[in-house]
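Milestone 3.1: sequence recovery, worked example.
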């Protein structure tokens, strides 16, 4: 519904464009008819000023450091809820009742096994393959195993595919880890909660019983909540664009995993920890801060900055708290990486360059330290991000499919290449 209009004057032509207001956040100028009316495109590489869709799932206020999932603040969900509760909220739009939660947990738990043939799929990879490469392959391959949930026009099949994705990502992620380190796969256990089951599949070995630590399981669960969804970020936009062609949900999620892998996006947690290791000591921080400020040096402080948050990333605060809880539980008193991280944060938050550019730590800055303390190699960090983000991707994909105005995404361009010219025979070149 148009709430007001904006007037665009182009030469002698005045064009009225409808302006729509959402529940929260900036208004939007609907330019859907601009090309038809004016023969002109808008131009916004990187989509810094572009709303790609209407959504009811997640709201971010980058200036205020606000993140809401279906209206509920991330800190309340992380402190008071659990990951499957947040999954239900993202997928269905409301917090579950006790009965609904029990039923949802039951359904997810009983979808955690993967087709036994998937384990042979893994053996085609080198053991030293990056687990994200394995996840891209295996998740895309799910559409070769689950033909009964790829018809996107069938709401029931869409929900079955959604449940399968939420349930099987931990199993696939754990299998990618076990394959990477040369240990046997561990099957899921139905008597464990989601996070404990995942830690069990990662760290149990056939030779002895593995008892999940409830403090570490709670921390893992909270890390999943913090990564669950984040509006129209690069990987979510990738999933939406892939889904707009009618591709099956498993292929769309695989596309999201591929996009998330980039160090500017979900790959930043692995890059941030590698950066902290490279800095190595508090004494070397000024050298790296200087490099981050040098326009001629491509180096950036990984884990700092964000397209939307121009204030503190609310998830980073909760992540930092979780980091201290995990290190405390594990009796890790002085983690040199944590010392470097906290001093780097202190310096960056007082440095004029970072203040002027509004660069604050994002969720990836502290997550690596926590995941390393939990026992994961850096190569698994983005896999864990993908595991958690799968519910956000699939919720956004479902919303896109159910949108009556949905059509295939097909941006245009500003062409600055050669005008038309004739073919030149080889002997004339
Ligand atoms: C995630 O979109 C999401 O929601 C993503 C995410 C999610 O949950 O899905 O939140 C997850 O991807 C978090 C971001 C993780 N990435 C990193 O930590 C990598 C380091 N950060 C940068 O690469 C950068 O900050 C981005 C990619 C996150 C944001 O890039 P923008 O918005 O395009 O900003 P920019 O590159 O235009 O930077 C603005 C200015 C530039 O300087 P000028 O050209 O104006 O002179 O700030 C500088 C940049 O050079 N800058 C940095 C910096 N980040 C930006 N300088 C030093 N170190 C940095 N980290």
């Amino acid at each position: 519904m148009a709430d007001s209009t904006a007037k665009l004057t182009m030469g002698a032509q005045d064009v009225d464009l409808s302006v729509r207001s959402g529940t929260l956040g900036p208004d939007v100028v609907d330019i859907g008819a601009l090309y038809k009316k004016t023969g002109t495109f808008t131009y916004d590489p990187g989509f810094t000023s572009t709303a790609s869709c209407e959504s009811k799932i997640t709201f971010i206020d980058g200036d205020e450091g606000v993140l809401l999932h279906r209206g509920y603040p991330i800190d309340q969900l992380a402190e008071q809820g659990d990951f499957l509760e947040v999954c239900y909220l993202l997928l269905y739009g409301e917090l579950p009742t006790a009965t609904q939660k029990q039923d949802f947990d039951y359904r997810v738990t009983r979808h955690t096994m993967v087709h036994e043939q998937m384990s042979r799929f893994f053996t085609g990879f080198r053991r030293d393959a990056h687990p994200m490469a394995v996840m891209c392959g295996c998740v895309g391959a799910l559409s070769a195993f689950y033909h009964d949930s790829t018809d996107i026009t069938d709401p029931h099949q869409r929900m079955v595919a959604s449940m399968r994705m939420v349930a099987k990502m931990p199993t696939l992620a754990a299998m990618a880890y076990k394959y990477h380190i040369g240990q046997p796969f561990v099957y899921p256990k139905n008597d464990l909660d989601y996070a404990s089951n995942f830690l069990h599949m990662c760290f149990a070995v056939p030779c002895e019983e593995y008892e999940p630590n409830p403090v570490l399981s709670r921390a893992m669960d909270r890390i999943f909540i913090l990564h669950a969804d984040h509006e129209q970020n690069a990987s979510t936009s990738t999933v939406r664009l892939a889904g707009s062609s009618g591709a099956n949900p498993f292929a769309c999620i695989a596309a999201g995993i591929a996009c998330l892998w980039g160090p500017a996006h979900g790959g930043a947690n692995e890059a941030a920890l590698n950066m902290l290791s490279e800095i190595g000591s508090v004494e070397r921080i000024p050298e790296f801060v200087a490099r981050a400020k040098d326009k001629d040096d491509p180096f950036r402080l990984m884990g700092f900055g964000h397209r939307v948050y121009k204030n503190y990333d609310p998830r980073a605060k909760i992540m930092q708290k979780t980091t201290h809880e995990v290190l405390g539980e594990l009796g890790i008193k002085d983690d040199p990486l944590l010392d470097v991280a906290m001093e780097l944060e202190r310096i960056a938050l007082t440095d004029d360059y970072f203040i002027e550019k509004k660069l604050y730590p994002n969720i990836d800055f502290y997550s690596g330290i926590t995941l390393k303390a939990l026992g994961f190699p850096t190569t698994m960090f983005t896999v864990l991000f993908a595991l958690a983000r799968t519910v956000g991707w699939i919720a956004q994909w479902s919303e896109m499919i159910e949108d009556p105005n949905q059509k295939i995404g097909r941006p245009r361009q500003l062409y600055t290449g050669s005008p038309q010219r004739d073919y030149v025979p080889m002997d004339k070149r």
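The beta strands are 4-10, 13-20, 28-29, 58-61, 66-69, 72-73. Residues 230, 233, 264-266, 268, 292, 300-308, 357, 359, 362-364 surround s-citryldethia Coenzyme A (CB under 6 Å).
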